Amino acid sequence: MTTLKRKHTDFIKKKATELGFQKCGIAKAKQLEQDARHLEDWLNSNQQGEMGYMENYFDKRIDPRILVPGAKSVVSLLLNYYPEEKCNEEKEDFKISKYAYGKDYHFVIKEKLKLFMLAIQEEIGAVDGRVFVDSAPVLDKAWARESGIGWMGKHTNVINREMGSFFFIAELILDLDLFYDHPIKDYCGTCTACIDACPTDAIVEPYKVDGSKCISYFTIELKNAIPDDVRGKFDNWIFGCDICQDVCPWNKFSSAHNEPVFDPSPDLLNMSNADWEDITDEVFNVLFQKSAVKRTKIQGLKRNIDFVMKKGRE
């Protein structure tokens, strides 16, 4: 039985590499008791803002065995998205998060996960489970931590010593017994670079982010008007924000991804502030046809641009 379990574990890790994932770790499916307390406190403090969906399916979020009956293992995967070529990121440039440069990661990773699941079933047999990529009540950062492929940084993003933090996280939750990895040491030490750099003070204390103060929340999740008290604090980010990751010392180890579909188009690379200000429906639909930026729609993007443009007029 032990030999078979080792064989299955080795196959899954090897297949993860073949499919282009940079890291694969495996944790025992269980209730995340400490994370449950943190999530409850976070919700009770209303730090989810208008992200009401975070209040749904609490039991499933903290225990994958409820989400996937019979679950025994959570396979966590990291996929690098750090770009070789960056869009303009000078102080006065309008900026979008690097993860949104290319094709929407949901589509890219979901396809890989489907192939992964099929390969597992072909190799091992009747394995039941589900695949996830930021699309269901799964605490993906917690499982990445539990599986030992990174630790939770003070900005609450997962950090890997070899890759930094510019990566997507995905999971396979399986009814399969495997050998399990273990959490690793937290290597943030006394560093507070991310906390010091956040212009809206969203990192209210180490390892705790008030989602309702985050620039990514304001520019993506918030559907109503952006509050005036954060005007002038966005550093011209119009979709998402990478500040806390850009200043993290561990991201000096970031290297360019090898997924061409994540590359920005030449048109996106060449966007000037004037181009952003004059963006039309037609240009938006061409630039972001299969991009995560479509989440905010052109109305939301124009709202964000207008908001950062007015910072000096108030």
Tally of contiguous helical segments: 13
Biggest sheet strand line-up: 1-2-7-4
- What is the H/E string? HEHHHEEHEHEEEHEEHEHHHHH
Which whole number gives the mean pLDDT?
A: 92
Question: What's the gyration radius in Å?
Answer: 20 Å
Uncertain regions spanning at least 5 consecutive residues: none
Q: How many strands, which pairing sense, and closed or not: the largest β-sheet? A: 4 strands, antiparallel
Report the portion of residues in β strands.
5-15%
Cα-to-Cα separation, first versus last residue: 69 Å
Descriptive report:
The chain has helices at 2-18, 33-44, 58-62, 64-67, 105-124, 140-146, 193-197, 215-221, 243-246, 266-269, 273-277, 281-287, 297-309, and strands spanning 23-28, 73-80, 95-96, 129-132, 151-152, 158-159, 167-174, 203-205, 208-209, 237-239. The chain has 314 residues and is an alpha+beta fold. The strands form four sheets. A four-stranded antiparallel sheet has the order 1-2-7-4, with helices on both faces. Strands 3-10 form a two-stranded parallel ribbon. Strands 5-6 form a two-stranded antiparallel sheet.
Which features would summarize this protein structure in a list?
314 residues, alpha+beta, 2 domains, 4-stranded antiparallel beta sheet, 10 strands, 35% helix
Condensed summary:
The protein is of the alpha+beta class and 314 residues long. It has helices at 2-18, 33-44, 58-62, 64-67, 105-124, 140-146, 193-197, 215-221, 243-246, 266-269, 273-277, 281-287, 297-309; strands spanning 23-28, 73-80, 95-96, 129-132, 151-152, 158-159, 167-174, 203-205, 208-209, 237-239.
